[in-house]
Amino acid sequence: MILENGTIRTLDPALPAARALAIAGDLIAGGVGVHETALASPETVDLGGRCVLPGFTDSHVHFPTWAVAQHEVKLDGCTSLDEALARVREATATGTWLRGYGWRSGEWTNGREPTKEDLDAVTGDRPASLIAKDYHSLWLNSAALALAGGDLDVAGGIVERDANGEPTGVLREESAWRFKERYITTPDDEYLTAMRAGVKLTHARGVTCVHDKDGWLGAAGLWQQLGAQLRVWQSVPHETLPALDALSLHSGLGSLLRIGYLKVFMDGTLGSRTAWMLDGSGVQITSGDELAEIVRAGAEAGWPVGVHAIGDRANREALDAFEQTRDVWEPRGLRQRIEHCQLLSPEDLPRFAELGVTASVQFSHAPSDRDLADRFWAGKTGGAYAFRSLLDSGAVVVNGSDAPIEELDPLAGVRAGVRRSIDERPAWHPEQALTVEQAFHATCVDPRGSPATSASAEPCSRATPLTSSSSIATPGTTSTRRSSRRWSPAAGCTTRRPGTGEPGSLSSTRFASFGFA
């Protein structure tokens, strides 16, 4: 197959662009005029001026959770408690539980936190569970709370209580997660049905690989049941390390589905006001010393760590832990990661590059969180969502969506990274805006630090062509036209065997084509 009459942007500085591309089976044969003789009766595809790019990797997604959330009550975008309650009242969801997601009380006009009584008025005796936009707070009605019999408190968790000491119905962090694990179960069949639909949508958006963070709910087993449909770099809870070590398993196990890294949480989130801060506020889930022990044990068993860190204290403690254990993990070639990196003190920002720790960020979070950050981190936002500063420092930056917190839509993420705005307001901290090429590099190329997700434009690399028509606006413009056409010329290419390269190798390529130069 030859793709011609377009622009091939390889994102490789050695050969940044070509006028056409030849593909033999699932391999890139090279530029037209050189290698097309290797193709037997090649099909020619007129790109019509479109631009071809390596396929997208979403470097941070909770895929099973996002897939199921597509069928729950959506509260994202509600501007008041009354609007959220109206959506719950109108819900037609079936089953024992009424489930919803996406509320963010910090953006409600009345500024009041929700309560179980509010929810009781629109749900009655049916248990209701509404997870916050950041997935770190849970809003329950009285019927749901009653299931716990008062057993709500747990280390690292918060139970919001009224003036009389009674639970208000809002649980945060470990308290929310334990309640969810104990009482709100989702059958595998429900996950699998939702994931099948989710994979189709993901393919349509040009995504060919995901770094999945739902290891705690058994996502690896779900992907295995689903069959190979995406390349997956899967996390597992750090608590499973003894079992992995006992079986002599190490990072990289698998083919299309690879068990890749240990997941750890340092703190909470901005929206739930549980981010661990240098001013002493927030929630500490894992201490720096505890993380160092986890990193050391993981490295000795051949496992890197991806650690959730939002607040400036959480990021400092994580960097300290990686620095203290560098003598163990660096010689083994392990790529350590900090997930989110949302607030960094000036002295900590250059340490990502100095230590070789990947900054796994979400471009869409910056404009989505801007109002909360200005409110809760007033005077500190110069170090918030500092994507350009991280890149300028030499750090490896990879981009994901954190779906379902934000939508699994890589083009929306690229636009957010470039424009630093998702509405008509001027760019938020425009000094942190990225170029289009930088945003695509973080979405297509730099995720290669995980072997399952490599991307390149080299001849004999593998390719999954997808094409559509779209555009991206730069800061100061308002065009955000969405994709209008998608096409896959080689059904099944997304299930081709990826390369086996070590972290940093360029062994497996997917291409997506979009209508901008």
Describe what this molecule looks like in 3D.
The chain is globular. It has 16 helices and 25 strands. It is an alpha/beta fold. The protein is 27% helix and 21% strand. Helix 6 (188-204) crosses helix 7 (219-226) and helix 9 (288-300) packs across helix 10 (312-324). Strands 8, 15, 16, 17, 18, 19, 20, 21 and 22 form a nine-stranded mixed beta sheet that branches. The protein has a six-stranded mixed beta sheet with strand order 3-2-7-25-23-24, with no helix packed on it. It has a six-stranded mixed beta sheet with strand order 9-10-11-12-14-13. The chain has two domains: 56-63 and 188-514, TIM Barrel (Alpha-Beta Barrel), CATH 3.20.20.140; 98-183, Diaminopimelate Epimerase, Chain A, domain 1 (Roll).
CATH architecture of the largest domain: Alpha-Beta Barrel
Q: Give the tally of β-strands.
A: 25
Helix content estimate: 25-40%
Poorly predicted regions: 451-462, 464-517
Task: Provide tags for this entry.
517 residues; Diaminopimelate Epimerase, Chain A, domain 1; 21% strand; disordered C terminus; six-stranded mixed β-sheet; nine-stranded mixed β-sheet; single chain; globular; TIM Barrel
